[in-house]
Amino acid sequence: MDLELNSGTPAHLAAVEGAERGLVVIPDIWGVRPLFTDLCHSLSARTGWSVATFEPFPGQDLPGAADPDGPPRRFAAMSALTDDRLLGDAVLAADATGAGAVGIIGFCMGGMYALKASSTGRFDRVVAFYGMIRVPADWRGAGQGEPLDALARRGSSEVMAVVGTADQWTPPEQVAELESAGVTVVRYDGADHGFVHDPSRPTHRPDDAADAWDRALAFLDGLPARA
Questions:
Q1: Per-residue pLDDT for 225 more than 80?
Q2: How far is Cα 201 from Cα 180, in angstroms, rounded to an integer?
Q3: What is the CATH number of domain 2-220?
Q4: DSSP string of 78-129?
Q5: Whether the model pTM is above 0.90
Q6: Fewer CB within 10 A of the terminal residue: the chain, N end or C end?
């Protein structure tokens, strides 16, 4: 169902009455759309969890991926995002699931914010799918903190990062920094950015995506990460 968080941000919830566990999904830079509302329901059906997502750019009339102005305008909007607002909405979305124990996942830009969400104290398990490990130079703004700094403050939150070795957004030296920070890193050889969550992307790899989902959901459910 569609809903509005207390902040006024649009959100969507696949609710399971009495669910003992919840999950928040932070979209990629293209925001909430059927890909993500459908994902909430498919994940909820698979796990029995209540699953919520929310719009990263509320109140902004930004073009979509098919519009030539989409990438430059969305990238330009990144520097105006603030961690307080976006992570605050992530916490509100967690509350909307009605569950005490809540995990969080994110993709691309949303994966970067999932790493940051590890420091909020609300999420016990975090999975970042090819999230930026350092804020890209063109995205930096006064309200943007670094994911690695958030990870250093995460307390007991367990964190997994799913990355492709051919992804320029997650360079090997930065992935090594994630591992040094105690993050469980799962690498997919030859995979490029966005290979898991959107089957319409040319970089999508169905077999790797299926494996990544199996690993991520087991991790979110508290099982040890498999080699």
A1: no
A2: 31
A3: 3.40.50.1820
A4: HTT--HHHHHHHHHHHHHHTT-SEEEEEEETHHHHHHHHHTTSSS-SEEEEE
A5: yes
A6: C
